[in-house]
User: Which sequence fits this backbone?
């Protein structure tokens, strides 16, 4: 091995371990499902960017907007295309667009960004149309999708730039949109286009300061309102802060709202919102960091709108951090701040920029930014055009609230390291005990969906499911709660998946420990079944969500020991696959606990005994030990009876001559292995599925060894710094391979990232290098058939890492 590649491997390993050690308390999904067979996929040749979606339960279709195409897909099976409409840009438009300096094949196309219901048969559609947005009407009748050709101006309703985030909402005949109104994308507006009075936001910086719009929805607050309040449209975005004194621009997350009945002002704020108020949204990590940035929001509606909750995904604003968070905000908390909170006001400071501080003076009546309610009506103000100038001027100059909005529980519901979270939907599930749980489905930037619940403060990720093979970002996520389906779109395809598939859990213990509110064990049919499909008779069903208590499960047959033959001097591998990423394997040899050392390697798929000798014969037990809430659950996964073979000796079971050299040789042996007659009946069936992919030993027990790990990490980091110095010195002189690795690695990561992200977050490829992504780390390695268990979370050490470690080990002995 030449020096530099080795050094780069070592450094990658150290980086991985650093992140693993620092973040071991953040969500690891209990289960990882890499290639689910219950997905339905839709994609069409030469069509990309499936990132706009409208579910029409009423018509039984999913309307899907992509680049230059709109499809109507069967809502029960999106692989079935019912109809499609193509809407390409004209050559002339494309030429115009390229003259203005945009790329013909990328930006000068028509990206469908808006699909809204108008009435039973009609849908409003807008596309970027080669940086010249236009809108049109689509009809869906007799299974046919048609574009009417009544084209309308799309400026302000749809972005010019296909990579720019934006949000819009149709309320009755009014289209609310938050986007840029110019070609350069530099003039943000919040617009209401309607027959009555079209309104927009003011261009003042205090209204919108380089915003990135994310989400919008309406809350019907006029329902049973004691003070005759109005419905409100809530908008979520991030923008540059005015409230921090900082040497550089800091972004913050915001929620803003406007009233549905707003008609603008008479003299002040004519044709502009008189009810635009905004406040900071806080969703903070336990450790100090720059404010997290909102990426997507879902409104969990409740019959009583006061109990509705906004779920938001937040990601770091600097590429240095890797932790995403989910926070929930109650509509009542948001309302209280807008309706009764203090405002911020500008004070001029001689030396530097203006400062924004709490306004302590008198607030005019009617309250600035309030909707027209009974208080205003009593004062003779029946609509916003009758509001006094004093109120209007106040809200024009001070739309920002002083208080920030804190999450419901005071802290995030979920923290997750690794690939960033991109989209969220939330389902409300009634469990067997009739309690309701909010299950979050969260898309990631590498094509996974995380299914998570917060059980009384405990963050729990039930499973992660890979839905996009190419590991692209999830660009859109939609839920049909009534059908129990989730729809996710990315650049290359769109998928449909069930909210749960309980049949994946084959026995009672697995079913209960999954702690999936959709699933319960039915003791009559002996199946893990969907709670909805069960005739509710809790007598014959087992579910224990908060405790994960399996004591109600019927007793299982004890495991039979499997015979294994050992050949002295060879290595012996005993498979033991755990059913949970959260579990650890505890091995026992004749009732003595085995510690990993230079004889025993304990790794994710089993135990490796190096240079076995006669004295290694005996009974081996593999226990899966898992922490569930506050209790520890242990169960035996495998039993092996290891003994010398009877004469004449059978072929060796598993042979690895020396670790570190013979992955390929090992694979050759696998074949013989599964067919040797040295195994008992149980093994031949079990071993095939249990046989691990040819991995090298790993330390599964990272958690328990964190402290010693941290010390070694510190030492290794120092070493790494020195080594890095050496690398760069070499590079400066010789352009060695290592930097090539750095480049390709960075590029690969860049490509994987959604363009939205790159724009929104300014993440650079250098910082990406620091991100622990096992996919990328391993992709540079010959042993690409390795199946790593947790997406992006390096709580298992991979092959190259161990090679690196081995290398240090040898060198340091010199
Ligand atoms: C659940 O998964 C099993 C296999 O894991 C599959 O055969 C079955 O069709 C899936 N069920 C649903 C409802 O998709
Ligand atoms: C559309 O998809 C293509 C192919 O994956 C991708 O290169 C491009 O960046 C996407 N465009 C947008 C606007 O997301
Ligand atoms: C879904 O539709 C596809 C394409 O029409 C078809 O091949 C497949 O069998 C359908 N799946 C189900 C479960 O109906
Ligand atoms: C739906 O809206 C379109 C466009 O506004 C209109 O032309 C059509 O008549 C409406 N259809 C129904 C059934 O209301
Ligand atoms: C407001 O409406 C009430 C009742 O609808 C009416 O009596 C009153 O004159 C109106 N006030 C103004 C200023 O228009
Ligand atoms: C694995 O565990 C053993 C024993 O605890 C320890 O000596 C070794 O350094 C660990 N290896 C790694 C890669 O952490
Ligand atoms: C294997 O073990 C035997 C004795 O148990 C020892 O003599 C031999 O040197 C060991 N081989 C290796 C490669 O460690």
Assistant:
């Amino acid at each position: 091995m030449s020096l530099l590649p080795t050094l780069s491997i070592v450094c990658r390993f150290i980086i991985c371990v650093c992140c693993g050690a620092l973040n071991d308390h953040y969500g690891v999904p209990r289960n990882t499902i890499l290639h689910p067979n219950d997905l339905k996929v839709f994609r069409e040749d030469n069509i990309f960017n499936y990132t706009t979606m409208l579910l029409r339960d009423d018509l039984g279709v999913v309307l899907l907007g992509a680049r230059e195409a709109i499809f109507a897909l069967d809502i029960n099976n999106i692989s079935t295309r019912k109809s499609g409409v193509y809407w390409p840009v004209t050559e002339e438009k494309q030429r115009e667009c390229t003259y203005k300096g945009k790329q013909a094949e990328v930006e000068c196309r028509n990206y469908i960004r808006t699909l809204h219901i108008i009435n039973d048969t009609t849908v409003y559609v807008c596309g970027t149309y080669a940086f010249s947005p236009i809108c049109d009407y689509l009809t869906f009748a007799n299974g046919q999708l048609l574009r009417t050709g009544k084209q309308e101006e799309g400026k302000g309703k749809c972005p010019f730039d296909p990579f720019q985030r934006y949000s819009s909402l149709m309320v009755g005949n009014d289209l609310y949109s938050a986007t840029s109104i110019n070609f350069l994308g530099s003039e943000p507006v919040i617009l209401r286009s309607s027959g009555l009075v079209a309104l927009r936001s003011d261009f003042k910086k205090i209204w919108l300061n380089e915003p990135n719009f994310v989400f919008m929805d309406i809350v019907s607050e006029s329902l049973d309102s004691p003070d005759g309040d109005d419905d409100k449209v809530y908008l979520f975005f991030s923008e540059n802060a005015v409230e921090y004194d900082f040497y550089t621009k800091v972004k913050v997350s915001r929620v803003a709202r406007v009233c549905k009945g707003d008609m603008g002002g008479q003299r002040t704020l004519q044709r502009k919102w008189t009810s635009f108020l905004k406040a900071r949204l806080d969703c903070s990590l336990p450790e100090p960091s720059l404010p997290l940035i909102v990426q997507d929001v879902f409104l969990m509606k409740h019959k009583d709108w006061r109990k509705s909750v906004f779920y938001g995904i937040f990601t770091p604003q600097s590429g240095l951090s890797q932790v995403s968070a989910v926070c929930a905000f109650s509509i009542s908390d948001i309302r209280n701040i807008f309706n009764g909170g203090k405002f911020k006001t500008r004070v001029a400071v001689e030396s530097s920029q203006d400062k924004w501080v709490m306004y302590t003076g008198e607030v005019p009546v009617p309250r600035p930014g309030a909707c027209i309610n009974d208080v205003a009506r009593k004062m003779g103000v029946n609509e916003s055009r009758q509001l006094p100038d004093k109120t209007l001027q106040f809200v024009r100059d001070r739309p920002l609230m002083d208080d920030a909005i804190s999450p419901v529980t005071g802290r995030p519901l979920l923290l997750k390291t690794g690939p960033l979270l991109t989209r969220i939907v939330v389902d409300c599930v009634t469990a067997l005990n009739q309690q309701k749980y909010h299950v979050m489905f969260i898309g990631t930037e590498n094509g996974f969906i995380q299914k998570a619940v917060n059980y009384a403060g405990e963050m729990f990720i039930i499973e992660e499911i890979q839905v996009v093979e190419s590991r692209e970002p999830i660009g859109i996520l939609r839920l049909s709660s009534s059908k129990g389906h989730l729809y996710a779109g990315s650049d290359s395809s769109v998928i449909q998946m069930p909210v749960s598939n309980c049949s994946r859990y084959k026995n009672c213990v697995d079913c209960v420990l999954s702690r999936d509110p959709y699933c319960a064990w039915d003791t009559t049919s002996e199946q893990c079944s969907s709670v909805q499909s069960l005739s509710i008779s809790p007598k014959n069903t087992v579910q224990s969500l908060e405790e994960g208590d399996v004591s109600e499960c019927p007793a299982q047959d004890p495991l039979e020991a499997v015979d294994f033959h050992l050949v002295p001097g060879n290595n012996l591998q005993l498979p033991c696959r755990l059913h949970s990423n959260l579990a650890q394997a505890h091995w026992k040899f004749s009732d003595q606990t085995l510690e990993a050392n230079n004889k025993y390697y304990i790794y994710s798929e089993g135990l490796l005994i190096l240079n076995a000798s006669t004295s290694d014969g005996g009974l081996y037990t593999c226990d899966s030990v898992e922490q569930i809430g506050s209790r520890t659950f242990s169960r035996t996964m495998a039993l092996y009876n290891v003994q010398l073979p009877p004469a004449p000796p059978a072929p060796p079971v598993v042979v690895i001559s020396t670790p570190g050299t013979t992955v390929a040789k090992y694979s050759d042996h696998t074949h013989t292995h599964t067919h040797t007659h040295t195994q008992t009946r149980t093994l031949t069936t079990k071993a095939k599925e249990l046989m691990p992919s040819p991995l090298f030993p790993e330390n599964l027990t990272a958690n328990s060894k964190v402290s010693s790990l941290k010390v070694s990490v510190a030492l290794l980091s120092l070493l790494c710094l020195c080594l890095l110095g050496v690398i760069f010195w070499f590079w400066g002189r010789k352009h060695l391979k290592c930097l090539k690795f750095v480049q390709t690695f960075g590029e690969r990561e860049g490509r994987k990232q959604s363009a939205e992200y790159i724009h929104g977050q300014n993440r650079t490829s250098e910082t990406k290098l620091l991100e622990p992504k096992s996919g990328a780390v391993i992709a540079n390695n010959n042993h690409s058939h390795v199946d790593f268990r947790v997406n992006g979370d390096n709580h298992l050490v991979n092959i190259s890492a161990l090679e690196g470690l081995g290398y240090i080990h040898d060198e340091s002995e010199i």
Summary: The CA atoms of residues 424 and 544 lie 25 Å apart. Residues 1-24, 653-716, 730-814 have pLDDT under 50 and may be disordered.
